[in-house]
TrEMBL record:
It comes from Glonium stellatum. Keywords: Membrane, Transmembrane, Transmembrane helix. This is Lincomycin-condensing protein lmbA. It is found in: Membrane. Belongs to the IFI6/IFI27 family. It is a multi-pass membrane protein. GO terms for cellular component: membrane.
Amino acid sequence: MGLLNEIFPCITARAKVNVPVHTNEDKPITDLKSPPAQPTEEEIATSIISALFAAEKPGHDLERTLQDIVHSCGWYEGLAKRVLDLLENTIKCGKDMVGAMKEADDKAAAEASDFVHEHPILTDVIITVIAIGILVILAPWAVEALGFGELGPIEGTFAAWWQSTFPDVEAGSLFGYFQRLGMKWGKK
């Protein structure tokens, strides 16, 4: 209170005035409200995976749930990769699939069967392919975030890396399938 009374005349060019100063000496600072902490990328990705496993079927309800989870940050490549990593780990651990996840896993595995037969030693790649397939079915906007864009693979993304690693993309390949989905999704 003394300091404020000393500088007040300097600021206002007036004579000293006793300005009451209120303190919170009886309330600890921890009682003050602070803005809620923003969830981390890991927390958002974990929530997305939980929602995918909890969904009974794909569709508008699941889409609305996922969009509610990512509403503050939107879909971006880092988040899509984190979701993909968590989904790959879940598949590797052999977690039982139920509901929408079981249906998506079955469809993705069926789509990946030709790739599996052609490349049986690429287990991690196969798991990634199945995980992407699940995302395509349950969260197609994640495919665009991974770089499968409306006009083709987006430079510097997972899709561009895949295309440069496996450059011989044939008609009917999984890469082509994901790219077509990205093109369709980009037009919505």
